[in-house]
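check this one:
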Amino acid sequence: MLDPGEGGGALTANRSSLARPAPALVLTTLSLLAGCVAGPETGQARAPGHGAPKVAVDVEDDDNLPVVPTTDPERTRIAREMYLRGVRLLSGSPRIDEAIREFQQSLEIDPLFYRAHFKLGICYYMKGQYPLEINEYKKCLAINPQYVPAWLNLGHAYLARDGLEQARAAYERVLEINPHHAVALYNKALIEFDLHNEPESRRLFEQFLHVDGEGEMGERARQYLSELQRREVPAPPPARRAGG
């Protein structure tokens, strides 16, 4: 059995081995198969109650937002200016409450600006207000159900609350959109490991290694596969007693 995450319950898979995207890596070694936590754009770790992973980077370029057809270009322009002010307030030394106000005002002007909901989710994550974080990702996805960063962060947020089934469903949505998403493959493999769905865990780890077998996560994935293979070897029969 693997060691539980710091402060966590008696879990099979170490919750702190769940991955989050770059820029930073924060490593936690607890046992043979301890995993890694990849850092977010915030650079802050979630509280270690379950060794939860951190939020995903918004991979799109905030300075070159896609053009969306609108009946009121001026309102759209103002909403985007407020959004970008909020983004800047989160850089360097984050001024989170001010950023929240900018994103909220942006949404008052353009209620369909889904990326403002996503950024609000990150703000609430940074404040430790995880139910609000989850709610904003859901609002984002209600507008744009194809937005991978929100599905990814939703999975991470559910994992922080030990909601394995909900996290699994979120990662499945990521993989429906992008079957080669390395972080979703890795995290879902760990969830299946934790839920004793070992054939699926093995399949996902192998797929992850095919996509991205380098670095700490690749090494952890190989260690998990070794453990899964060890479990598949049948135990030898008990030795017979002499004269029996």
Q: What stands out?
A: The chain is about 55% helix and 0% strand. The longest helix spans residues 215-232. The beta strands are 25-27, 36-38. The chain has one domain: 15-58+72-230.
